[in-house]
Design a protein that fits this description.
Layout lengths: L2 H12 L11 H10 L5 H14 L3 H6 L2 H8 L6 H16 L8 H5 L6 H12 L8 H10 L9 H14 L5 H14 L18 H4 L16 E11 L4 E2 L2 E2 L10 E2 L2 E4 L5 H11 L7 E4 L5 E4 L3 E11 L8 E2 L10 H9 L3
Parallel strand pairs: 1-8
Antiparallel strand pairs: 1-5, 2-9, 3-4, 6-8, 7-8
The chain binds a DNA duplex (11 and 11 nucleotides) through helix 2, helix 3, helix 6, helix 8 and helix 9.
DNA sequence: AATCCGGGGTC
DNA sequence: GACCCAGGATT
């Protein structure tokens, strides 16, 4: 029995009943695929449920504000996905009359849809013979065929894509594509794969050469940048504070945060006071004190954010202030959300 | 071709 | 602490 046939039979026996597996509706498949980019299925499920309920149709998503979309996306990370999701919903609604295009090529033109997602939608929704290559597929193919070409080199990307096309089952592409990914997620897992019960074991090169733990090969380049964030939590006599929206490039684009004073290292109360006027032009504060007693190091893929929250009180009224009790309504990074949860003035 | 972009689970 | 996750966009 060949590779694709074994995958299909394994999938029939082992597939999970995921919320988006009961439909071929492009809107829902697209939504799930965007959410699952670099994201575990278990983490994505509750977000998928929330979005489907809040926005049953692509037109509903298009009609929402970006702030609403970001708020629902809060905590899932990679927020450009949410911004692109919203932009694409508008395009589909306005220029495609609410219907997704049904070819790889057209899908690829949409914001947030790259090679993987275009292939996934084209195959799952429309039965197009397009091979998906995600992290699971890289791992399964690298092990089964014993390929040590780095999966994140440009040569590797092309090689694995061609290989995936060569061995796919074009007639059963919908189940085959989902099957090989599911197989990678459950059977051929990154750590401790279940080779003992694997239906592909007899012909797996990595198993035969005892190189399961060495494949796939990935070039690593994880240089972490250390940054020092001082958040200025202004508080006035009316229990109001100030929030700003992050603009430009960089992390957390369009999400909200407190006025930020970034420094090269940890700074003290005196330096915070000295820099206060440049960020917010207002009267003299009555007191400034550090809120978090223990260190907060918020870790992103490429950055460690050494964070201090400074409470700065005023015996007057802040202009453009918002009620502290309303903070939870704004889309914010997890770092800020965690602070808001514990913040009691 | 390299780098950036989150947050959380797992070992 | 290191690795990975149903990747894509930018430089």
């Amino acid at each position: 029995m060949n590779f694709s046939r074994i995958i299909l039979e394994w999938y029939e026996q082992n597939k999970r009943l995921l919320p988006w597996r009961r439909t071929k509706e492009p809107y829902r498949i697209w939504l799930s695929e965007i959410m699952l980019q670099q994201t575990r299925v278990a983490q994505g499920i509750p977000y998928y449920m929330k979005f489907v309920e809040a926005f049953p149709k692509v037109q509903d998503l298009a009609a929402a504000s970006e702030e609403q979309v970001l708020k629902l996306w809060q905590g899932l990370g990679y927020y450009s996905r949410a911004r692109n999701l919203h932009a694409t919903a508008k395009i589909i609604t306005e220029k495609y009359n609410g219907k997704f295009p049904d070819t790889y090529k057209e899908l690829l033109q949409l914001k947030g849809i790259g090679d993987y997602t275009a292939s996934a939608i084209a195959s799952i929704c429309f039965g197009r013979p397009e091979a998906v290559v995600d992290g699971n597929v890289y791992r399964v193919l690298a092990r089964y065929y014993g390929i040590d070409l780095p999966i994140n080199s440009s040569e590797g990307v092309l090689y694995f894509k061609e290989l995936a096309k060569d061995i796919m089952d074009a007639k059963n592409i919908r189940d085959y594509n989902q099957g090989i990914m599911e197989f990678g997620a459950l059977q051929c897992a990154p750590k401790n794969p279940d080779c003992g019960s694997c239906p592909l074991q007899k012909s797996c090169v990595a198993f035969a050469t005892n190189s399961i733990d060495n494949l796939p090969v990935k070039i690593k380049k994880n240089k972490v940048r250390n940054r020092y964030f001082n958040y200025l939590v202004l508080v006035d006599e009316n229990k109001q504070t100030l929030l700003q929206q992050r603009k430009g490039s960089g992390i957390w684009q369009n999400l909200y945060e407190f006025p930020l004073l970034e420094s090269e290292k940890y700074i003290d109360q005196g330096e915070v006071a000295g820099n206060l006027k440049e960020l917010v032009s207002l009267q003299e504060p009555s007191e400034i004190y550090l809120y978090n007693e223990s260190k907060i190091v918020h870790k992103l893929s490429h950055q460690h954010l050494h964070t201090r929250f400074w409470i700065i009180t005023f015996e007057s009224n802040l202009e453009n202030g918002i009620q502290i009790a309303e903070l939870h309504k704004y889309p914010v990074p997890v770092l800020i959300a965690d602070f808001i949860k514990t913040f009691k003035i």
